[in-house]
């Protein structure tokens, strides 16, 4: 039995979608539970030659043997939920997904408030998905809950009870968080952050799991750093330099060009400390080093190995997963050797 939590190590966009898909497809958890803020974060998933952009359904949906749950701490936009049911019809997602009745609901008025707030949209760089205003209403105790929405009735469950029962029965649970540590309302670059905490401890609370039941915390870092929107970025490089390096990126939800910077070892150390990280998944190594598609650690170039060792030294955490491309097969898995 293992209960694992996956977190983003920096400002999101670390490649969590691929990592989640890899873990869930290879480890075959009984339950994949979505934690985090809500549909303001996008996860990209590539599987069997097809690419998907998700905002609410767990990214591990490709494992059709797993039950998909959305924890009580997650904001639910019914429009996004039903769109993804249809979008992922091929994977029978609708029949496998349940949401906690205590999820707060994003309504059209929340999206309008988000988009028309000069402070949120222009200064903070909100995605306009309504999450900030919806979380504000939740704090004020005036938000609608999923259990009170008739169209959601057939999808309502007690996620905490299901997750804890599954763990107690000796089965695996995988909890996927969204966004990244540096966007945490508490520990991020305030005020340029999201509307709640984005650390592993909160992700556990989002699905109703106590800390004593969590076995592994996996933090995902990209080999370079990106962020969308305003806020401090100590290692940022110019867009021209990013283009020269071939590391231009655009946001899944907003389509905005991401700011790009070099790997931040100080941020990684703090992120691992506060998340209680037990292992690191490192993505996009192939973007900086000549190692595309390599699946054997011994075949990595010396400079790539040096980079990985520097991360391990800075954080004190083993790098167990190394992604050398977008396909699930383009992965080096060192868990058997290092854990």
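^ Assign residues to that structure.
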């Amino acid at each position: 039995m293992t209960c694992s939590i996956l977190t983003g190590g920096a400002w999101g966009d670390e490649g969590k979608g691929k990592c989640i898909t890899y873990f869930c497809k290879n480890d075959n958890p009984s339950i994949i539970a979505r934690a985090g803020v809500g549909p303001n974060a996008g996860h990209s998933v590539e599987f069997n030659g097809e690419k998907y952009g998700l905002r609410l359904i767990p990214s591990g949906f490709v494992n059709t043997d797993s039950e998909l749950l959305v924890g009580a701490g997650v904001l639910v936009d019914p429009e996004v939920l039903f769109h993804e049911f249809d979008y992922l019809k091929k994977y029978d997602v609708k029949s496998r997904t349940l949401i906690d009745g205590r999820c707060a609901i994003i309504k059209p008025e929340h999206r309008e408030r988000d988009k028309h707030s000069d402070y949120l949209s222009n200064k903070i760089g909100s995605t306009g998905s309504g999450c900030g205003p919806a979380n504000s209403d939740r704090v004020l105790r005036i938000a609608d809950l999923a259990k009170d929405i008739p169209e959601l009735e057939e999808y309502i469950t007690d996620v905490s009870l299901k997750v804890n029962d599954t763990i107690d029965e000796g089965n695996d649970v995988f909890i996927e968080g969204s966004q990244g540590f540096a966007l945490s309302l508490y520990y991020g670059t305030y005020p340029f952050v999201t509307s709640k905490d984005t650390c592993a401890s909160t992700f556990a609370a989002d699905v109703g799991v106590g800390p004593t039941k969590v076995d592994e915390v996996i933090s995902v870092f990209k080999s370079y750093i990106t962020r969308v929107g305003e806020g401090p970025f100590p290692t940022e490089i110019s867009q021209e330099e990013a283009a020269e390096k071939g590391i231009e990126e655009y946001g899944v939800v907003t389509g905005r060009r991401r700011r790009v910077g070099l790997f931040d070892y100080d941020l990684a150390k703090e992120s691992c400390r506060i998340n209680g990280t037990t292992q690191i998944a490192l993505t996009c190594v192939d973007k900086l080093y000549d190692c595309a598609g390599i699946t054997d650690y011994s075949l990595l170039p010396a400079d790539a190995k040096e980079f990985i060792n520097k991360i391990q030294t800075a954080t004190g955490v083993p790098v167990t997963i190394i992604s050398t491309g977008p396909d699930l097969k383009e992965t080096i898995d060192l868990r058997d050797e290092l854990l």
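The two ends are 15 Å apart (CA to CA).
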